[in-house]
Amino acid sequence: xxxxxxxxxxxxxxxxxxxxxxxxxxxxxxxxxxxxxxxxxxxxxxxxxxxxxxxxxxxxxxxxxxxxxxxxxxxxxxxxxxxxxxxxxxxxxxxxxxxxxxxxxxxxxxxxxxxxxxxxxxxxxxxxxxxxxxxxxxxxxxxxxxxxxxxxxxxxxxxxxxxxxxxxxxxxxxxxxxxxxxxxxxxxxxxxxxxxxxxxxxxxxxxxxxxxxxxxxxxxxxxxxxxxxxxxxxxxxxxxxxxxxxxxxxxxxxxxxxxxxxxxxxxxxxxxxxxxxxxxxxxxxxxxxxxxxxxxxxxxxxxxxxxxxxxxxxxxxxxxxxxxxxxxxxxxx
Length: 333
Hints:
alpha/beta, Rossmann fold, five-stranded mixed sheet, 5 helices, 14 strands
């Protein structure tokens, strides 16, 4: 299951305690204090990783803690610092403080490192408390606790192509045809309940594109009806939008009205979305009703970049695949 939101408790490591030790050697009866300091606790570090697809790792491990620092020991030995907790998250992850709803950070670059929480300082050994009037101090300080927090991680998918459309338009079928992702397919609405990201390979060109299959929208999605905002947020970072239309008009839908409503929902959510390059895939061209609907569509929307396809027969898929590569390459410049 694709997981795009998670609640996580992070705790940085506690610092180790200082040591109250004294030098004991033959012929050195008054060696003085030699207690070492405690080690620093480990930090919580988030790392952006293009090879991580979603936030599923937190589904069954929502409580994560960095290592504590070691205590100091005698002979001026300082404790080892605790190991940092390094957590790899997918690109496009937004970290929100659950208590204040403040956006803490955002990871959008591969290998980007963000120290989310700092480990506690180590305590002081009795070596630090030596003075002319206190030749044998027994004071030491415990280590300080590390920072902790409750965070909500939200993934806004970073993909080259965002595939949007109403339920039953054939988005999952197209994703199956173009990529190695295998989202669930069935002849009923809302088969896909989570965004799916697949890779379109161009082996002869040593290139590849990522395609995000955004779950079926509903009217009013921009007002957060249904799971509107959970779906639409994945479109924001895509370089190109591919609108999928059921040109056969299954379930008594009108592809012309669907196209108009989809544009309205995208614009209402964010006008910036319509500034992205947009292609339209007219699916189910193998069905009889598609020809007349296509004729009506071309008459009304003359400037739309339209591709006739059929996920059942494979018609037009090679042409669409090549056009996606060209458009994404141009958008990346």
